[in-house]
Specification:
heterodimer; A: about 270 residues; alpha/beta; Rossmann fold; 7 helices; globular; B: about 250 residues; MetI-like fold; about 80% helix; about 0% strand; binds adenosine-5'-triphosphate; binds magnesium ion
Chain lengths: ~270, ~250
């Protein structure tokens, strides 16, 4: 399960900021005016798909997945996960935050156990937590606090916490932002492997076009705000993907660059 | 490292020693009799008398008892109330003005009312100490709750935390690093106020010792009581500072 249907989804923010008014200042947004962020978005994510979302900064990617995850209200349209309306955050859909999503007063072990804290059988619970801590390679750091871990380890701990729940949908908002290149590549690999293994729907926001094309089963590209779907392609290439071997993939890469406004792609 | 620790004890002691010398010189050259301005030696003799006959211990215990009681009451009422008001945005709008109105009124201004309501004895003193530490604690708790990163509430919502869990697993641990300095300050204020409270309402405590010694014209005892107040103040402060070492709190200082 983890089938997401989005139809005609719109989101308006009411602009509360008072723009300083000078003679030649024509602010893009006026006070009290509606600011449209998502404009009639139609998307369908299949069960177990790893969807990568690309788009210019400030176009509404975070807004979209916050709405799907139930953290934000939509203005209009339909949003169904497994046929059910989304009414609010739920532990079936776990959000991996861009940074510092771990609770800093809890150890890795306690953080990872949040999703199974109501599980009755202690032994089974401990086994499950340990299993996922091992999967993300954090064995030996169970009793460390987040501030005692590196940035990459924190991301992995958060990933473990999300996976322990066995969520239907996993949301990741630029989870690798701020990581160095090597860690990033390794984390990519870990997520791909983990996804092949668990087959959960993952919605993954990134700014990195190569990353989206190497990881995704589907790549969605948004326009500038108000965000509309500009490109929505399903990628059926096996992993690992190599741009120099696949002509189609290379062609797609150029297209995505162009769609995002870079015309002289490398 | 060992050197550093050693210096941490030696340097402050040197300052105290210097203060003692300045004090002795001031007392010797002031031309006042030692009944008016006792020097360190006279004060030390007086201190010995007070320790030997148990007076000092008895008064210190009385003061500590009132401070502890009043302070604990303030913590027990102020912190949960602050968490509630801080969490509940409407509550903040409702109560903020009232709190800011009551806060600048010195606890000492409440003395006549405290005496009238609670009579003579421990109760008015405890009440004043409660007031003195309650408002700083309440305000700091509310502020600390407002400073909690909203991300943590989203995590709580994502993992279906009940309101009780949100309080015990998110709000309370999240405010602790900010709460400890507030506890430290309000305990200091409580200790300031107890002396004033004991000068009016009771017949025991270090405040009473000062007043009583003044009436008996024993300025050396007055100074002894002041020294005891200072020393106990240091100890109370140290105890709270130790709480910072708890590991689930130390994230705040990173
Ligand atoms: N709470 C809010 N109130 C008003 N406007 C908002 C709010 N949150 C976001 N916006 C507006 O919505 C637009 C989209 O924001 P969003 O965070 O979804 O962008 P994004 O695509 O995730 O950008 P980035 O790639 O830089 O993270 C922004 O232009 C912003 O001004
Ligand atoms: Mg974003």
């Amino acid at each position: 399960m983890g089938h997401v249907i989005i139809k005609d989804l719109c989101k308006d923010y009411v602009e509360r900021r008072a723009a300083p008014r000078t003679a030649n200042n024509h602010s893009a947004v006026d006070r009290g005016q509606q600011l449209r962020v998502l404009d009639q978005v139609d998307l369908e994510f299949h069960d177990g798909e790893l969807v990568c979302i690309l788009g210019p900064s400030g176009c509404g990617k975070t807004t979209l997945i916050r709405i799907i995850a139930g953290f934000e209200e939509k203005t209009s349209g339909t949003l169904l996960i497994d046929g059910k309306q989304v009414k609010g955050p739920s532990s079936e859909n776990i959000f991996v935050f861009q940074h510092n999503g771990l609770l800093p007063w809890m150890t890795v072990w306690e953080n990872a156990g949040l999703g199974v804290r109501k599980m009755g059988n202690e032994a089974e619970k401990a086994e499950r937590i340990q299993e996922y801590i091992d999967i993300v390679n954090l064995s030996g750091f169970e009793h460390h606090y987040p501030h005692q871990l590196s940035g990459g380890m924190q991301r992995r701990a958060e990933l473990a916490r999300a996976l322990v729940v066995n969520p239907e949908v996993l949301f990741m908002d630029e989870p690798f932002a701020g990581l160095d290149y090597l860690t990033r590549v390794k984390m990519r690999e870990e997520i791909i492997n983990m996804h092949e293994y668990f087959r959960k729907t993952i919605i993954f926001i990134t700014h990195d076009i190569e990353e989206a094309l190497t990881m995704g089963d589907r790549v969605v590209v948004f326009t500038e705000r108000p965000a509309k779907v500009k490109l929505n392609v399903s990628l059926e290439y096996p992993h690992p993907r190599d741009f120099s071997c696949s002509v189609d993939l290379e062609q797609l890469r150029r297209t995505v660059y162009e769609e995002l406004g870079v015309h002289h792609a490398l | 490292m060992a050197d550093f620790r050693y210096m941490q004890i030696v340097l402050p002691l040197a300052v105290f020693l210097a203060l003692g010398i300045v004090w002795q010189c001031a007392a010797s050259f002031s031309g006042w009799s030692s009944a008016v301005f006792p020097g360190p030696v006279a004060t030390a003799v007086g201190m010995w008398e007070l320790i030997a006959n148990g007076t000092l211990l008895q008064h210190s215990v009385a003061s500590l008892f009132r401070v502890t009681l009043g302070f604990y009451l303030a913590v027990i009422v102020g912190v949960p109330l602050g968490m509630l008001i801080g969490w509940w945005k409407t509550g903040q709008v409702m109560f903020n003005a009232l709190i800011q109105f009551l806060r600048p009124i010195s606890p000492l201004a409440w003395i006549p009312l405290a005496l009238l309501w609670f009579g003579i004895g421990d109760k008015p003193a405890v009440f004043l100490i409660f007031l003195a530490s309650f408002f700083p604690l309440l305000v700091s708790t509310i502020t600390a709750v407002n400073h909690i990163n909203s991300l943590y509430f989203q995590v709580a919502a994502n993992f279906n935390f009940s309101p009780l869990e949100t309080v015990s697993k998110v709000i309370f641990p999240a405010i602790l690093p900010e709460l400890l300095p507030a506890l430290r300050i309000s305990l200091g204020v409580a200790w300031l106020v107890v002396v004033a409270a004991e000068m009016i309402a009771v017949k025991s405590g270090l405040g009473y010792l000062i007043l009583d010694s003044r009436n008996a014209l024993r300025m050396d005892y007055v100074m002894d009581a002041m020294i005891a107040i200072g020393l106990i103040g240091i100890c109370l402060d140290r105890i709270i500072v130790q709480l910072n070492r708890i590991e689930s709190v130390s994230w705040g200082s990173v």
